[in-house]
Amino acid sequence: MTTAAAVAQAIAEAGIKKAFGLPGGEVLVLIDELRKAGVDFVLMRHEANAGIAAAVYGKLNRQPGVVIATLGPGAANLLLPIANAYLDQEPLLAITAQIPGDYPITHTHQLLPLHDIFRPMCRVVDTITPSNAVEKVGEALSACFDRPYGVSYLTLSARDAVKPLLMIGPKYHEGPPTRPMANPAARAADLRARCAMAERPLVLVGLGVEPERAPSLRRWLDEWQLPFAVTPKVKGLLDETSENFVGVISGMAADGVMVDALNAADLLIGFGLDPVEIDKTWHAELPIQWVLDERNATGVLPNDTPLVNHVPLLAELLAGRAPRKYDRPFAMFQERRRDLLNGTAGAPGTMWPGDIIRALSEAMPSGTIVTTDVGSHKYLFGQYWPSCHPETFWMSNGLSGMAYGLSAAIGAKLARPDVPVLCAVGDGGFSMNAQELETAERVGAPFITVVLEDCSYSLIKLSQENKKLEPYRMDFRPIDNVKMAEACGVEGLRTSNPDEMAEAVMRAVAQSKSLVVAVPVHYADYRKMF
Ligand SMILES: Cc1ncc(C[n+]2csc(CCOP(=O)(O)OP(=O)(O)O)c2C)c(N)n1
Hints:
Layout: H1 3-13, E1 18-22, H2 28-36, E2 40-43, H3 47-60, E3 65-69, H4 73-76, H5 79-87, E4 92-96, H6 114-118, E5 124-127, H7 133-145, E6 151-155, H8 158-161, H9 184-197, E7 201-205, H10 214-223, E8 228-230, E9 245-248, H11 255-264, E10 267-271, H12 282-285, E11 288-291, H13 310-318, H14 331-339, H15 353-363, E12 369-372, H16 376-384, E13 393-394, H17 405-415, E14 421-426, H18 427-433, H19 436-442, E15 448-453, H20 458-466, H21 481-487, E16 491-494, H22 498-510, E17 515-520, H23 523-527
Helix pairs in contact: 1-2, 1-7, 3-5, 3-17, 9-13, 10-13, 11-14, 15-22
The structure holds thiamine diphosphate.
Thiamine diphosphate (TPP) binds at residues 373-377, 400-402, 426-429, 452, 454, 456-460.
């Protein structure tokens, strides 16, 4: 067996069915071995997009995502998805080629210090060799899948790839190491006492809660009638149509209302809350009761609070009766939040952003997976998309990197072929990777894309205006996104009529077809909602 074959086998044995990437000559043998081992290679058009799609695909399948790229420029293009998976807690194994370590020192063509570049963001950074291949891949897979999820990065030179394997080491997967934890019964009693004293408790649920905890977490909040807010990365874990849902915290639309609500609370419980998502400093200033069963993505533990295992903790919280009754203490904030969604478009021929949410949430079936890109539209969808099911909302929020939405939609659709997928992007982000629509068509991953067209990097344009700077270089000319879609083999439509959009979307979903809807918006309308 060759080293590349051993790597491929270790990946296949971990149950991974697809690897994503963009090849170079140096990784062809590895890709071929993956094929022989039954791991499909999803060929994409940029390594950054491949890395994002891989991580979403992996996380939805409860396994590491795998991305393969060549050395030098291919590896350099992985910086964005590696940074994203690092901060946004997505499990990713990146494997690239590299110049063999014993090449002449003058052989610098495509030679980058790849391990040094990625080491600060990766759990395992190493070279795959004929004598460590199985053990190294196993270690890397385990490490990136250890919570909080993260990244492992391995290099394999084209020369070592074809060498025979020298030694078979231990196999994936030995399971996560154990950690000292606080006593769940004592922590539950403490929380019960605090809730009994509070009149306006608010539970803030974040990225550190496993989707599997959704049923018991929902039951706890429901039985105790606790008001709750979520961060964007866990939208859908809880039911956002519940009367106790206060809103989405951490920098989305209506954030002023959310910060007012946080300040009005007399007890804040940060259940799995990871400050990586929060763009303000209230997480450090307000007295939050942290209830974490893992450190956050970067290894920080706020206030050195002891970790507590969420499973027994929730069981303890659910034993016995609710400590007291609350009388919808955040009703005023919930109303203010809802009111911001109402309005009319600020320019003829454009659609009011609130109408986009309303029309799409009625048109798309319940359980639809939504992905967003980064920009004003992310704030809109992050706050107002009414998520009800775990793992149905995906955005880059820890890193907040543009060009996430479309790639995430491909990963999500490949992981959940039977679930409709909706991708919301700005016209700026769409122009970074619209060509992946062709990938989606080719690999059989149809989804709906809504491009909010305002011919500007509107979020940054609004920020420029807020800072009272000269309006400068934030606008661009239109690209015909309908033709762009058609050029990739996807049907396109431009409309500012919500009913026409809804009708087209429902038709495409019913026919399991891709559709790109270009929706003109007026950038200044976002200001009314932020
Ligand atoms: C890779 C990357 N580059 C730049 C930024 C900074 N940035 C954040 S939002 C934004 C504008 C996005 O514009 P567009 O995609 O049109 O969305 P809109 O804000 O108009 O909704 C920019 C440039 C970023 N987050 N990520």
